[in-house]
UniProtKB/TrEMBL annotation:
Pathway: Siderophore biosynthesis. This is Lysine N-acyltransferase MbtK. Residues 28-75 form the Acyltransferase MbtK/IucB-like conserved domain. Acyltransferase required for the direct transfer of medium- to long-chain fatty acyl moieties from a carrier protein (MbtL) on to the epsilon-amino group of lysine residue in the mycobactin core. Gene3D superfamilies: 3.40.630.30. InterPro entries: Acyl_CoA_acyltransferase (IPR016181), Acyltransferase_MbtK/IucB-like (IPR019432).
Amino acid sequence: MASTQVEKKPEFAYQNHDSTLDKIIAFRKVKLGEDLTKIHHWMNQPHVIPFWNLGLELDKMQAHLERAIADTHQTLYIGYLDGVPMSYWESYWTKDDILANCYQPHPEDQGIHLLIGETDYLGKGYALPLLKAMTAFQLQHLPTQKIVAEPDIRNQKMIHVFEGCGFEFQRKITLPDKQAALMFCSRDRFMERWES
């Protein structure tokens, strides 16, 4: 995970140069006034709707995001590639999530939800470096020893990306809105794979 140091802009919670892409990956917290129409547009894309089920009208999306931002068990982020906002992320504490009913969470376990919203960025190999960056960002919280994911079991492309990052399939689980693949990535496994 050796990388070139870049000057971190204050609005970004995380920023790093990815040597495989030769691009800057960054994340900043969602700001409702700035991001509502962008997230609404992304959630209504054909490649997103089947897996997120949030193809809502704008006013309903606003209400959904207001609730999500106020929910202290998660933090919402916009992901950037070379300064362009192109992805949406949710980082959450699994102990306070519905997922806690599916396994025995450690109090410091974190989970990830993500989507690439801009269609120009699909199919170009960006998902794995972005996921690697978000996982590295979450592991900056030193007590966290495990990152958890639960992609839709139908989303084989995303499951493959998680596996490429170091996540290991545990079992199929049933959540209120989907059948999902429960996947774990330990800190040790991630560091062994990406530290160099």
